Amino acid sequence: MAAHRQLHLNVNVLATGRHNAAWRHASTPKSVSDIQHFIDIAKVAERGTFDAIFFADHQALDDVAAFRPWHALDPSVLISAISQATTYIGLVATSSTTVEEPFHVARKVATIDHVSHGRAALNYVTSQQDSIARNFGYEHLPAHAERYRRATEFVEVVLKLWDSWSDDAVLADVQSGRYVDFQRVRPIAHKGEFFSVAGALNVPRPPQGRPVLVHAGDSSESRNIGARFADAIFTVQRTFDEARAFYQDYHARARGFGRTEPLPLILPGLYPVIAGTAAEARARKDEFDSLLDPTEELAKLAGRFNYKVERLVLDKPLPDDILDHILPTVNRGFLENLVREARREKLTLREVLGRNPIGGHRLIVGGPDEIADEIAYWFNNHAADGFNLNFDAYPSGLELFVEHVVPVLRRHGIFRREYTGTTLRDHLGLARPASHIRAREAELIHEAANRKEIIMTVINNPRTEPTETLSLATPATIAPGDLRAIALSGAELAVVDVREGDAYVAAGHISIAVELPLSELELKAYDLLPRRSVPLVVVDDDGASLAPLAARRLADIGYTDVRVLEGGLAGWQQAGFPLITGQHALSKALGEVVERRDHTPRITAEQLRARFAAGEDFVVLDTRPLEEFNYLSIPDGIAAPGAELLHRVFDAVPSPTTPIVVNCAGRTRAIIGAQALINAGVPNPIVSLENGTAAWLFAGLTPARGAAREAPRPSAEGLAKAKEAQQRLAKRFGISPLSPEALAGFRAEVETRTLYLFDIRTGEEFAAGHLAGSRHVPGGQLVQNTDRFVGSRQGRIVLVDDTDLVRATISASWLLQLGHNEVHVYPATPAELSETGSVAPLLPNLPQPAAAISPLALSRLVAGGGATVLDLDPIAPYHQVRRYIPGSLVARRATLPQRLTAVPGAGPIVLTSKDGALARLAAADLHGLTEREVRVLEGGTDAWIGAALGFHSGSGQPALDPSETVPPPQTLEQRRAYFDAYVAWGHTIGAELERDGLVQFRHYPE
Ligand SMILES: Cc1cc2nc3c(=O)[nH]c(=O)nc-3n(C[C@H](O)[C@H](O)[C@H](O)COP(=O)(O)O)c2cc1C
Fold this sequence. Notes:
By secondary structure, the chain is an alpha/beta fold.
């Protein structure tokens, strides 16, 4: 990077010149298609040590060609030719993301980068004229929003294609005869809304890694897509204040997308008319202007504004309603800037015509010092990092600038005296992005996939390229094969799936991945992944849409070893590796495997009903948490949640001959519960209710609602029996208590090995006294929803219990069967259980909201129709009823920045979530993205409800985006269909996991 900030100058070439009459002055009036003309311009710019020569584009022949040269030659072909006659100057060509294809453009620009030895840049624009559409098979261009959605995906694909080769993939090994090493070239397997591109690119990695990206546009959508991807921005501000505001807005947006220095370079257009002195410059301008027909120019201006030319009078000001008729396809930014300027300076139309109204960019006429001072002022005061310079006539205007202005800028110390590098990235002070394919690693894995010592080398040196060379905007990546090899090696590794909605459950996920939706990332990460240095792999659909941002956010909150899975799940599947579906799939799969393997006895709902009817003596024990049990259960059930089942069974069912039916909502907890009692040697006849409470409902039987009967805490006698059972389990599963010294040792190693310290007793016991640093997770839920609590499968799990260890041992027996390697039980003495109260989730520092609003103030604002409330709470589990602020809209944090323009109303946007934490994060994301005021409801929706301001409940809450709506409750038929699919899933999941091979359930024969 340059040691100090440097001015950047491009020459923006419009054939013979920006002035409409320039061609009438030129020595080569037909220069529009004369390559030598363009080469001459580039050489002058290179003599002036300009950064780049820039070509806009318009892929249609418009009427303007009747009076002046236009964008005739294809700019990419043009810069290719120019590259052969120059050495240093950067080469920027424009492509339209609306009508072109990303593969074609990525290939073309990569080719130019090779041909020019690293000087290519792509200016990606969305285009606006329908005359272009008609050359590509459409009547009109798509609407603005669609153009930008397409543009976003377009650039993503281009970047993926440029990144699809490692730097060293071309071997050209004459000895071995191998040309390209396909281990170092990766397909991109992109499937999106607009494009389906298999990849890889058929051009080797470009010399600049990624050629430079430039973007031109003005609207909020344009600023977002520029702030997200571009290295430099070509823009239109005509005054210093507008330019400074634009500059600041852009930087805020870029930071909002997780970017750090270098932020996009802001290069407004500027049209200097220059000569040796100010008087000569004015004379030059007058001379050019005299060749124009003012009536003709007036007609063009009227056309631009879609305004009746008869209503425009040359020596009068612009009419008041001149902005009212602009066609929606035209860029308003240019025209609004112009009108503001004319009104501010009280210009007549004739004067406006003298200021480049059609070209749009700011025109200044002056001598060398005047122009250099103006440029330096904007640059030094951060209204611009440089300029895209338009000259009245080429090459003469540029020659005058190079001769007179460039030396002044050099004297100011802001512009280079000579080139210090050879690539455009060098000129712009941009590092070359490292290859995303770590070739050596791929090679090692490939050659010795089964040799642990080599895999360990890779694991110990996970980055064969220094990460410092990667800008934060492009997190490190890992190839699917490498991820799999590390997972199989047994080294510690956490895979987090950051997709939103039900993609993880329904579309499928990597078997060892845990769910960490992007929206809730900061709220859940610390508890799920307590070790900040854990090797972390972030997964999304394609490796580009969510994962890079998630990786940056993880890095921001302290994680030090974060990589993105290359190609995401598409890449994973493309490499031949499977996905599994289902929520808490491993825990549920264990239930299925166990039922078949251990022949866990079961009865159907009908059989249970018959037993009820016959008045038989039996007890139904329900293993779910009380809240869920309370929502819906079987008549006469008794709650004995999770690990409490063994703890309390001897008191709940005193006679050893009374049959016990174990129940839950569906399948897993009933199977695991029943089998747990059997494994523990409980003498009673034990069965699980097949398909649990769901089966009861589907059989048309009446369930219980609001049931509250709980199995009593164990008596001394009950506990003695439970303790005997614990010893049987401990023996069979090889579980022995952890000593205090060993626990202290684990605590000392938390920087190198993850430690989960879970207290598996009841919430009340935990609150009354617990071990410092432990977290409360009921044992049953820990087994049933392990992926909610344990992000690293190779982490150490320590279950803290009373000294009897009944609940810890039964829970540990299942975690071991789930395949976790290091599961320990810790008998805490009463003296050690010294911390009291509940423990809130561990959170990073949350951003302070720009402005909070109290529930009362919000209620007043809403009553006056002055605010739009967005509710960011994710969809709650089935047994929790959603409560929300009347009139609020469901929104999702991860997609809100893109949906901002769809937020109704014009007043403040108020964000809420259950306790306000998620709303604060979302508010921080929106910083600089909207001109509307963004506020956060103090204390969130809970505070609103607590303030008795009225709430709605249920599923009727409307959504900002209909695809993110809270689903209505399922009908019985829908639930039955869902359940049938789940039962079918249970039949195949065991075999699928065997094929997958990343998770090994363990069997401990009696
Ligand atoms: C400075 C500037 C240069 C542009 N150059 C081109 C161009 O060369 N080719 C093109 O098709 N569109 C060009 N555009 C138009 C944009 O692609 C876009 O369609 C237009 O600005 C409207 O979108 P917006 O309202 O988001 O800015 C340019 C726009 C600006 C502001």
